[in-house]
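Exercise: predict the fold of this chain.
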Amino acid sequence: MDAFRTSTLPILCLLPLALGVLAGCDSSDSGMNADQPLRQVSYDLSAQSNDGALSDGLSATATFRELGPNQTLVTLELNGGATGTTVSHPAHIHNGAAGSGGGIEIYLSPIDGTGGGGTSARVVDRSFDNLADFDGYINIHESAANLGNVVAQGNIGANADGQPSEGFNVVDNPQSTTYSLSANPNDGSVAPDGIPGQVTFNEVTNGMTIVTWKLNVDGATGADVSHPAHIHNGVIGGSGGGIEIYLSPVDGTDSAARSSKLVNRSYDNLTSFDGYVNVHQSAAKLGNVVAQGNIGANASGGDDGGGGGGGGGGGGY
């Protein structure tokens, strides 16, 4: 009996530890802890004096918002709101520290100067940790034609002390719907035959939706302008409904030809909205519509993407 106790005591002592290890090896673990809020971190961008139309520069805030294991939403917000100019303001994440002249690493979505609160968003296919540790900085420029005029700049990631905070409270099984945008012939110089595309509504929280749109081109449009887009009231061919929601423009030099906007409306609100999307040649040439499509209540039926899958580690946004 004493021999039995001696030989089994170490095993009994190790049993709770072994069970604990096994309990932590759940093969269904997605890499995201559902009980923990998603993370976000913000960085200050300082106004930069320049020789352009916005000579005093603009201060801004960049925020990295965790979406899932391999995606991050990067939002930009000008502290003074929209600039009231007839251009869009491109932005990029550059390599190295501010002032080093590092090349562009990641295209961000331009900020529409004509309205929309001076904000933009971009879904970046990198993990939150990757961006939060990245050796880089952000530049916001006057326009695609005047990239040399930097209006805001700031270090990010490994080069800055960001302000962390609680991120998205993502819904379970987020939904996604895509609508087609048809090429629209116009009198413009950039795309007179129009360019087809699509717009996707991705549910994030109970009251927020990521609206992503893209143009179906082989690379960038090649224009030295950004292409604004809006959700309008009514139906195509109707009474010409006014702008309801400003979306982020697409940079004419961006090979992905896509952009996103974080909209403070629920997914159900947008997918039942009486509206349509217009994509324009430029902020200065809004009359030249290059793509157009009905959405929500006016669409014959969007393509159900089966869910954005963001916070739970499923599909992408």
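Check your answer against the key: The helical segments are 2-23, 128-132, 267-271.
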